[in-house]
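Lab notebook: predicted structure, single chain.

Context: the supervisor wants predicted structures on file for every construct in the current expression panel, including those that have not yet been purified. This is the next one on the list. No modifications to the sequence; it matches the entry in the shared construct table.
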Amino acid sequence: MKKILLSLLFLATTMVFAEVTNRPVTIPFVNEKDMKIIDIRTEGEWREMGIVSDAYLLTFFDERYGYDTEAFLKELNHIVKKDEQFALICNTGSRTKLVSNFLSKNGYNVVNLTGGMSALARDGYKPKPYKQSRDSNKDNNSSE
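Prediction complete. Output recorded below exactly as produced.
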């Protein structure tokens, strides 16, 4: 009986707290389109560096490092299902590390792309120019 209860407790814990997968970002990974990529950088960064083709644009931290987790999660839930694996990218991987840990503690199946857009640029990736609009994801994500 104890083994059954411990097994159920373990399963419940792993389902609530998904683990973060840390993966160095590579050009083949972003070109494969095997999973959705959420770009959490600011609009200014999207304009300056460009974006990954087909990435979903959803800022977490604003220019002053403020954030609204409720609004972010509401928008994220329009893009991915909680059990669907998806990847986060930012400029260097610092913000995605924080946000990935937060999301995993809330049951999301997230991949943190370490190195971010800076690593892609160093490797020769040619980002897509950012097109400003009221709904960034419609104009910048061709699968919408």
